[in-house]
C-alpha cells in the first residue's frame, strides 16, 4: 500500500489549480501553486493566503465530493432510480436573493439530488431550472444536441425567472457555448459558461459568479461577522466584534489584538484577515514593470485610482499621474502617488487589469478583493 498512487491525483491537482491565484508567489511556503495544490490534497489544513476561509472549505469539498455523494449514489443504484424522472421548472436551493445564479439541470431525479446535496453542503443558494431531457443527464443531452435554443427559451419564459432575479444569465457547462450566439438572437437571456464537472460548481459559483459579477466588495462586514466568534468580549479594545471589523476595514486595528483569533480554531480566518486588512509596510510597496511584456495598451494608466484622482484635478499643471505611456510603453513617473505607498493600502488594480501580466509587486500576500471596491470608489470620486 505504500506504493499506492491515486490515479485521479493529477485530475484533482488540475481542479485545485484552476481556482488558485496561479501567481506562484510562494506565500504558502511551498514554492508555487502546483506544489500547494498537491500538498492541499494530502493536507487540507494548508493555507493559501490569497483564499478566504470559505474558499478553503469549498476546495476541500471539491477534492472530497465523492465521500459526500457516495451514499446517495449507492442508494440510487441499489434502488435502480438513476434514470427516474423528477419535476421540471424552478427548483429553489437555500434562500436565493436577486443576485443568485440560475443553473440549468435535467429532470433526472439522481442529477437533481446530487446538485441539491452538493449546493446545500456548500451553503450556496441558487435556482435550478429543470427541463425535460427524456431521462438523460444535462451533459449528455447537450452533447447529443437534445437541448435546443427554443426548448431553453420556452423553459425560461414559462418559469418567469426574470421576476426572481435581477439578471438574465443562465449557467450551463462551458461546452454548451455553441448555443450562445444563436440563443442570444432569440432571447434576452445569455449563457454563463460554468464548470464541466459538478464537483467544481460550489467553488466556481463563489469565485466566478459572485466574485466576478455581483459581489462588488467580497470583504463585506456582515459576511465576515458570521465567521467571527461574536463573543463581544471587548478584549480587542472595541465594544463589539462588529466595531472591531469596522476598524479593521479602515486599517486602524490590528488582527492580533483579538485573542480569540489567535487560537487554533480561527487559524484560517486570522490569516485571511491579516492579508486582507493589515496595512502593508513601506518597503513592501514596490511596483515592478516588465517592459518585455508591456504592450503599451494604457489600461494601467486608465484604471489606476491615483491616475484618475490626479487627472480630475482642476489645474492641469498640478497633475501627478503615476502611470504614463511614453514611446509605446508604460512608465512610472510619480511613485509617491501610488496608493500602496501613500496610504499603505494593498491596492493592485493596475496588476489585476493588465492583460499581459507586466505589473508585479513585492513578495507579500495581497488580496484581489480590495481592488474591485477601490476601483469603483476611485471612479466615483
Summarize the structure.
The protein has 381 residues and is of the alpha/beta class.
Ends distance: 62 Å
N-to-C SSE string, H for helix and E for strand: HHHEEHEHHEHEHHHHEHHEEHHEH
* Largest sheet, spatial ordering of strands: 1-3-2-4-5
Radius of gyration: 24 Å
- Strand composition percent: 5-15%
Per the principal axes of the C-alpha atoms, what is the gross shape? globular
Give helix % range: 40-55%
* Number of separate strands: 9
Tally of separate helices: 16
State the CATH class of the largest domain.
Alpha Beta
Structure description:
The protein is α/β, with parallel strands linked by helices and 381 residues long. It has 4 domains: 9-75; 81-214, Rossmann fold; 221-277, 3-methyladenine DNA Glycosylase II, Chain A, domain 3, CATH 1.10.15; 282-380, 2-Layer Sandwich (Alpha-Beta Plaits). Helix content is 41%, strand content 10%. The protein is built from 16 helices and 9 strands. The chain has helices at residues 9-18, 33-42, 53-78, 109-122, 138-143, 149-159, 180-186, 201-214, 221-225, 241-249, 267-277, 299-303, 305-311, 339-342, 349-353, 369-380; strands at residues 89-93, 102-106, 126-131, 169-173, 190-194, 287-289, 323-326, 329-332, 359-361. The strands form 3 sheets. It has a 5-stranded mixed beta sheet with strand order 1-3-2-4-5, with helices on both faces. β7 (323-326) and β8 form a beta hairpin. α1 (9-18) crosses α2, α3 (53-78) crosses α8 (201-214) and α13 (305-311) runs parallel beside α16 (369-380). The longest helix is centred in the N-terminal third of the chain and has 26 residues, at 53-78.
Amino acid at each position: 500500500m505504500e506504493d499506492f498512487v491515486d490515479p485521479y491525483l493529477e485530475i484533482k491537482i488540475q481542479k485545485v489549480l484552476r481556482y488558485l491565484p496561479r501567481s506562484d508567489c510562494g506565500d504558502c511556503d511551498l514554492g508555487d501553486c502546483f506544489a500547494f495544490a498537491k500538498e492541499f490534497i494530502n493536507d487540507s489544513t494548508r493555507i493559501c493566503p490569497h483564499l478566504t476561509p470559505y474558499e478553503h472549505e469549498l476546495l476541500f469539498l471539491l477534492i472530497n465530493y465523492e465521500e459526500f455523494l457516495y451514499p446517495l449514489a449507492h442508494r440510487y443504484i441499489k434502488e435502480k432510480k438513476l434514470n427516474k424522472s423528477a419535476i421540471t421548472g424552478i427548483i429553489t436551493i437555500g434562500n436565493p436573493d436577486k443576485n443568485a445564479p440560475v443553473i440549468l439541470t435535467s429532470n433526472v431525479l439522481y442529477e437533481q439530488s446530487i446538485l441539491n446535496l452538493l449546493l446545500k453542503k456548500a451553503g450556496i443558494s441558487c435556482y435550478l431550472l429543470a427541463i425535460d431531457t427524456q431521462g438523460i443527464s444535462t451533459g449528455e443531452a447537450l452533447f447529443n444536441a437534445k437541448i435546443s435554443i427554443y426548448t431553453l427559451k420556452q423553459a425560461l419564459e414559462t418559469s418567469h425567472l426574470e421576476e426572481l432575479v435581477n439578471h438574465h444569465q443562465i449557467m450551463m457547462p462551458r461546452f454548451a457555448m455553441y448555443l450562445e450566439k444563436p440563443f442570444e438572437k432569440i432571447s434576452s437571456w445569455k449563457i454563463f459558461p460554468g464548470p464541466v464537472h459538478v464537483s467544481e460548481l460550489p467553488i466556481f459559483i463563489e469565485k466566478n459568479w459572485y466574485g466576478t459579477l455581483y459581489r462588488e466588495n467580497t470583504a463585506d462586514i456582515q459576511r465576515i461577522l458570521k465567521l467571527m466568534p461574536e463573543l463581544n468580549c471587548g478584549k480587542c479594545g472595541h465594544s463589539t466584534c462588529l466595531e472591531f471589523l469596522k476598524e479593521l476595514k479602515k486599517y486602524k486595528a490590528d488582527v492580533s489584538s483579538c485573542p480569540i483569533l489567535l487560537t487554533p480554531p480561527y487559524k484560517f480566518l486570522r490569516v485571511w484577515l491579516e492579508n486582507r486588512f493589515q496595512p502593508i509596510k513601506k518597503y513592501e510597496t514596490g511596483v515592478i514593470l516588465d517592459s518585455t511584456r508591456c504592450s503599451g495598451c494604457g489600461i494601467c494608466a486608465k484604471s489606476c485610482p491615483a491616475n484618475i484622482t490626479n487627472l480630475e484635478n482642476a489645474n492641469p499643471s498640478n497633475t501627478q499621474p503615476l502611470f504614463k505611456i511614453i514611446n509605446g510603453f508604460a512608465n512610472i513617473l510619480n511613485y509617491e502617488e501610488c496608493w500602496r505607498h501613500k496610504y499603505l493600502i494593498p491596492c493592485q488594480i493596475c496588476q489585476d487589469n493588465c492583460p499581459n501580466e507586466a505589473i508585479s509587486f513585492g513578495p507579500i500576500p495581497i488580496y484581489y478583493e480590495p481592488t474591485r471596491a477601490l476601483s469603483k470608489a476611485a471612479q466615483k470620486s
